[in-house]
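Data availability (excerpt). The following record was deposited with the supplementary files.
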Amino acid sequence: MTHPDTLLDVSKLAYSYNGLAAVRDVSFHVGSGEVVALLGGNGAGKSTTVKVVAGALKAKSGTIRFDGEAIEGQPSHVVVKRGITLVPEGRLVFPLMTVEENLQMGGFTQPAASVARAIEHSFTLFPRLAERRAQRAGSLSGGEQQMLAIARGLMSAPRLMILDEPSLGLAPIRVQELFRLIAAIAEEGVAIVLVEQNVHQSLKIAHRGYVIERGTTVLGGTGEELLGNDYVRRAFLGR
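Predicted structure:
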């Protein structure tokens, strides 16, 4: 049963690549302002799941409801306008554009006045980007590029942001900083779906989490419950 304040409700999602099932039966929900972690090993189907939710891939079957309306099968530009933004794995900033130009690109669905306000708000959240606003994105460090990718995602004023492996390749000190920023974004009321290899950090900031194995949701619970779960501790935390 769907909770009344559910923002995103994914049910029995399935997707195949060239006839091979990558996602078989994934179900999860995200409440308004919640941080929800999707956990699983490489090839479990996490990234495929979030690409389907964001409209980058089309589901074979299952339902995706956002704010009570069915959105499965809708293209990504429509999903963005509905209020869902995906920050994909690998950052994918525009390297030859400046920091500010990258942010402007992220606000393409918004009126000009809103874009200007959103850029200044991004610079408040990410002071290091403010210092580099005229610098080309390709010259930034990996951590700074990840901040820019997230800031650019916020430019479309999402109600739900999906972050796919945001800490990948970052130095430990930058990982700590990144998770503080993710928590700060959530505190502003943006719901977050977090696909992340750093299971311990994810569950520390997540309200709830789900474990996906072989394209199927096999376990769910609060962040605290999953941190204490024997299976999660053995499979992901090495304990």
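Summary of structural features: The beta strands are 6-17, 20-31, 35-39, 61-66, 69-70, 84-87, 160-164, 191-195, 208-213, 216-222.
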